[in-house]
Design a protein that fits this description.
The chain is mostly beta strands. The protein has 11 helices and 40 strands.
Length: 656
């Protein structure tokens, strides 16, 4: 094998799809069962794929079902042998001692006695059940239909293509999917009212997108409705309430808004989203102006549609309800008092504020120099809130998250996790337990169960990455160079070839993602900064493995989070919006690479390149001179590599 072929083979082995087969127990994503603390998770261990069920109260973990018995039952049904250590299941739904799951498109039920049969009540992917489970709504021909007692009746009749009821906007990934999806709507807790999203896209121009159909064969062309910069901004989305008892429809009296996706995505994941039914039966919902310079929280009467402003925050910079723009909004209503917890960065740091039920600002909760990432649990009786925060880690890494607890009524926050690692935490619906996946780029993750005081009550998994390291994976070196302003520390990760020789000089590649909504330097073990369950959005290991695979080709690959990226204070984030020269981070990347090379003679600044994916591709593609920004001499190596280039759309990132 030639040297070049050998390098490509080593790089291919480190691509995520290949490398992760050789890392065991590194990722635990708890799936909570009802409102209890029980949960299950799927994990790949050295001895095979396992589904584990955990009872936090009894402190027990056991197989969620008999893997060998299920493999045998499936083999009898299909006539094909199955490996019990590699069952082809992605998810299960525990029902007592049985489990529901889908195999080859068929919904099945497997009981504790080993019986396997068709699921008599399979969950429907295209309906939205009412809270009592006896009724549901479904989309048919752009209209909402109510399913009840085996019959169907229309709730709307005037929906048309690109102006339907409960339909996702035409520029989303749902528009490309051939799978059925439930309506973009949300039931009231009493089951009478239905809050429905509607968006008029008839005047939005088409954008052809080609993809592969699920059945294979020829590509399928989709005509999406996608507004671009320069097109008229069409703020034509609205909320409606349907009274399912009487069939009346009422529009919520707030200004129309632009929507790149339905506001009900989070609700479909069982998470609080931009809208919420309050304990007294009103609707609380947020509206974000195009460009993001204002966020308004409204309270609306479902019977009349009348709405009034509860909280209104505006500024010359975009206003966010979460440090990660695309995560679930951080706000909660306290049932007993009606008080509202709401995220804001109005005083420089993104933190939590307490408002009275009428929207009056009471105070900031646990003020300090840290960035709040998520609210995990609230105990209204004890007046306590649990959250994750960055900037308070004993390691000094400003991106490491920790579990915090604070009083709703004042005082400092208390850190409940001591390990100087990245802590990715998810909370049980009951608020009594937290699953903590903790690690660092060079320290394989350990997953534990913690109680409300942060004490570890169970060990769940310890990552085993010996095989991955043996295949050439080399964790990145952390560095903290200085931004172009000469004073602001920024984060960088340096990926070296598996056969790195400090006596050699290596060409340098900047793996860039130059948009404002996310960071790309990894801080946990294999995990991207967002973690496995950041507001319901699953994020994988690409930022840890793709640069490593590229480095295996013989490059030094740097990953940098300069000014304009999130999870720091507002001043650090602001350049993405108020300084076009810094909006993509290129200036800070150039300064950082020069500084890093000054103490690392093996970085050859006469050969510098840049590549990016999605927003990273869009960052540098129009600026082909970015390599010359990094070093004064013209680079002799300038690879042009863009994947999944981002198409500029109106929104806060673009400042439209």
């Amino acid at each position: 094998m030639t040297d070049l072929a050998d390098r490509y083979a080593r790089a291919e082995a480190l691509l995520p799809a290949n490398a992760l087969r050789h890392a065991f127990g590194w990722l635990v994503q708890p799936r909570w069962i009802g409102e209890t603390g029980d949960f299950w998770y799927r994990v790949r261990r050295r001895d095979g794929l396992r589904f584990i069920r955990v009872d936090p109260v009894d402190r027990t973990a056991r197989p969620a079902f008999d893997h060998a018995a299920l493999a045998a039952a499936l083999a009898r049904r299909t006539g094909q042998a199955l490996d019990p250590d590699a069952l082809p299941l992605r998810a299960i739904i525990p029902v007592g001692d049985a489990i529901r799951f889908t195999h080859d498109g068929t919904a099945l039920l497997f009981d504790a006695a080993g019986g396997l049969r068709d699921d008599p009540a399979p969950p429907s992917g295209d309906s939205l059940p009412a809270p009592d489970g006896r009724r549901a709504v479904i989309l048919r021909d752009h209209n909402m239909h109510l399913l009840e007692n085996g019959t169907s009746r229309p709730l709307t009749t005037d929906g048309v293509a690109h102006f339907g009821w409960g339909a996702e906007p035409g520029g989303t990934m749902d528009a490309l999917s051939e799978a059925a999806a439930p309506p973009a709507a949300q039931w009231s807790p009493c089951g009478r009212w239905l809050l429905v999203f509607r968006c008029d896209e008839r005047a939005v121009r088409e954008m052809p997108v080609q993809g592969q159909g699920t059945a294979g064969g020829r590509p399928v062309t989709h005509a999406l409705r996608v507004p671009l910069i320069g097109d008229p901004v069409t703020e034509t989305a609205s909320f409606w309430v349907i009274d399912t008892h009487h069939g009346t429809r009422t529009r919520i009296d707030i200004p129309p808004f632009a929507a790149m996706e339905s506001p009900f995505w989070f609700a479909r994941q069982g998470l609080d989203g931009p809208q919420f039914w309050s304990p007294d039966g009103d609707i609380l919902l947020t509206r974000r102006e195009t460009g993001g310079r204002a966020q308004t929280l409204y309270r609306a009467d479902p019977a009349t549609g009348a709405a009034h402003i509860v909280i209104d925050e505006r500024g010359h910079l975009p206003v966010f309800l979460n440090a990660f723009e695309f995560a679930r909004p951080i706000w909660r209503v306290l049932p007993a008092t009606g008080e509202i917890l709401c995220y804001s960065a109005r005083e420089g740091w993104g933190q939590l504020y307490l408002h009275a039920a009428d929207g009056t600002l009471l105070h900031r909760i646990a003020p300090g120099d840290y960035a709040l990432r998520d609210v995990l649990a609230v105990d209204e009786g004890a007046r306590l809130v649990w959250f994750t925060a960055q900037g308070l880690c004993p390691s000094g890494n400003p991106y490491h998250r920790h579990l915090m607890r604070a009083s709703l009524d004042g005082g400092a926050a208390e850190r409940l996790t001591d390990e100087p690692l990245e802590h990715v935490l998810t909370a049980a619906p009951c608020g009594r337990f937290f699953v903590d996946l903790m690690g660092a780029p060079d320290q394989p993750s350990r997953t534990v169960l913690r109680d409300r005081d942060g004490a570890i009550v169970m060990d769940l998994e310890q990552a085993d990455a010996a095989d991955l390291f043996a295949r050439g994976y080399r964790p990145p070196d952390r560095a903290t160079p200085t931004a172009r302003d000469g004073r602001t520390p920024i984060e960088a990760a340096i990926f070296l070839p598996p056969d790195f020789d400090p006596a050699r000089r290596y060409p340098v590649l900047d793996a860039i993602y130059g948009w404002s909504q996310v960071t790309v330097v990894p801080h946990g073990f294999l995990l991207d900064t967002g973690g496995p369950l950041e507001g319901g959005i699953e994020i994988g290991a690409e930022n840890a493995l793709l640069p490593a695979a590229t480095a295996a080709l013989g490059f030094v690959v740097v990953v940098i989070d300069g000014r304009g990226t999130p999870y720091r204070d507002r001043a650090f984030h602001a350049p993405a919006f108020d300084d076009p020269a810094l909006a993509t981070g290129l200036a800070d990347h150039a300064a950082a690479i020069r500084e890093l090379a000054a103490t690392r003679p093996w970085m050859d600044l006469t050969r510098v390149g840049i590549f990016g994916h999605s927003g990273g591709g869009a960052t540098w593609r129009p600026r082909r001179c970015c390599c010359t920004m990094i070093c004064s001499a013209p680079p002799s190596l300038r690879p042009d590599a863009t994947t999944c280039g981002f198409i500029t759309r109106p929104g806060p990132i673009c400042g439209a």
